[in-house]
Specification:
Number of strands: 8
Distance between the termini: 8 Å
Number of domains: 2
Shape: globular
CATH class of the largest domain: Alpha Beta
Amino acid sequence: MNGWLEFTHRAPGSDIPRSSQVRQIPPLIWVATDRIHEVVVADASPLVRRAMERLLTPDYVVHAVAEGSKVLAIMERRPDALLLTALALDPMDGRTLLRTIEQRWPDRLRNVLVLTGEPEPHRGLPKGVTVLRKPALPDEILAELAARSKANRRRGSPGDVR
């Protein structure tokens, strides 16, 4: 293991396990790195972005943005980030954003959740994207993100250090 130890723990009050790595650096100095998943929240409404930040911050690092181009910039730097997006974004709408993600990183569509109140939300969406209908319960959102986070840990997401 080259001096790295891995363990799983839960934050107080959280059901989401977190993986950490600890490396021993002589003489007996320990350095810990948490591998908490990051979530990009994309919504045109500042109220929705703030609400999602409050909901997710205890368990995730949250990047809240209003524009699709900012989502792409973050996903470029953070290959294992989860995405919770609305379809009504400006200037790039959510469907265009998801088609761009599908073209650039098709394997990352499994990390996408769409939160929308549209009557036909699946129309024009790439396969592999999960849709949650508004109003979605906070527990629904957390459960869907936790499932993706867990699947990424099992699979070994692109950003993992092993």
